[in-house]
Amino acid sequence: MTSAMQWSVENPVRVRAMIEVTVWADRYDSELSVGFYDAFLKSSEAVLRQVDVPLQDEKLHSVLRVYPWSTGSPLQMLTNGDKQRRLRDTATACAMLKAYAPVGGAQP
Question: ∠ CA(87), CA(106), CA(45), 5° rounding?
């Protein structure tokens, strides 16, 4: 998650384009918009599975849906431009998620 956030901080033009395309799709082709979001969830889940996140599917999907809210939306970063705050917020969100899903621990 930290790597993904670092990428977004380093690629604000691409992040803005992703937001604009998603908003356009939501306005003109809601099925396409839902497909974008589903693809994001699937790719994020695949990455987390590679690092052996010890969560059942239902809880992992919950984390994936909550993560953007816990770090602030990409739009927030683009509008205020505070990249360092974005990275600090991501570190806080990661700490919260580690408490929710302790590495090597029992399933919460």
Answer: 50
Give tens-digit pLDDT for 37-94: 788 778 777 877 776 666 777 877 777 777 666 555 666 666 777 778 878 887 887 7
Closest by alpha carbon to 5, among 64, 97, 95, 88? 88
80 CB-near residues (< 8 Å, 6+ apart): none
pTM: 0.61
Question: Which residue, 98, 67, 91, is CA-closest to 6?
Answer: 91
Structure tokens belonging to residue 72: 């602030």
